[in-house]
Amino acid sequence: MESSELCVVESASVTMNTKNNRGHIILTHEKDIGNYLNVENIDDCLKHEVLRNPWVPNTIYDFKSELKSGRTRAFRYQWLQENGSWLTYSALEGVKGAFCRICVLFKPSIHRGVQGGFIIKPFNKYKDFHASSKIHLSSNWHTESMSRTKDFMDIMNCKKIIVIEQVNSGLHKEI
Ligand SMILES: [Zn+2]
Description:
Helices cover 37% and strands 11% of the residues. It is of the alpha+beta class.
């Protein structure tokens, strides 16, 4: 296996879009989950990074300024802390709101029902956040995405193990 298949990820906040030969430089705005709605063929390294380490708003982010007209309840930062394994907030214009990054990055193929908030568009009925997130987490969509995520993580982790083994066996030969 070529070492170039390894993900060498460096986060950058510059606006230049660039890759070097060591790996991928992932820009801060690229880690906003809103970039990946209905996107197929996301680069594996990028997908891996967004899955593990998505962009998150800082603690003083003004969620209230993003209230939809007629709504009184804003997104709460605390929800990200409590649900960090799946819940992700997008600040991208046009798709601001809450998403399940598992379902965005591994979009479920089951088309029964209408995939709406959390998956293909932002969830922003924050008054119903707790009930709706429970329903989402127990949905067939989320279950399917979770299982695809697990397979993906196994493959990505396995790649690293293979490279480590090759490095070790290389060392043995030199001795
Ligand atoms: Zn989900």
